[in-house]
Amino acid sequence: MGPEWAGDPGFRKGWGPIVRSPYLWNPGKKIWVSYENPWSIQARSLFAKRHRLAGMMMWELGADDPQHGLLTTMTGPWLRS
């Protein structure tokens, strides 16, 4: 998962430990792209559950894989209560 640039050799993959999100950085072009993956979605879902928030939302499902991996990861903590 990740943006189409993930395979571009000019981009380096990284992880923002404070915001718990993956990102891509191209130092030559000075392009920074953040995106979601199962680990970042799980961190957000667990945060929402721990803080007793009413739920979560997903902006669009089109970026998810055919098996709905991100949606499944997001709903996991809520369904296992």
TrEMBL record:
Q: Which InterPro entries match?
A: Chitinase_insertion_sf (IPR029070), GH (IPR017853), Glyco_hydro18_cat (IPR001223)
GH18 domain span: 1-81
Q: Which residue ranges run through the membrane?
A: none
Looking up Pfam families in the UniProt record yields: Glyco_hydro_18
**Span of the signal peptide:** none
PROSITE patterns membership: GH18_2
State the protein's name: GH18 domain-containing protein
SUPFAM superfamilies, sorted: (Trans)glycosidases (SSF51445), Chitinase insertion domain (SSF54556)
Q: Which GO terms describe its biological process?
A: carbohydrate metabolic process
Query: What is the organism field in this record?
Result: Amycolatopsis keratiniphila subsp. keratiniphila
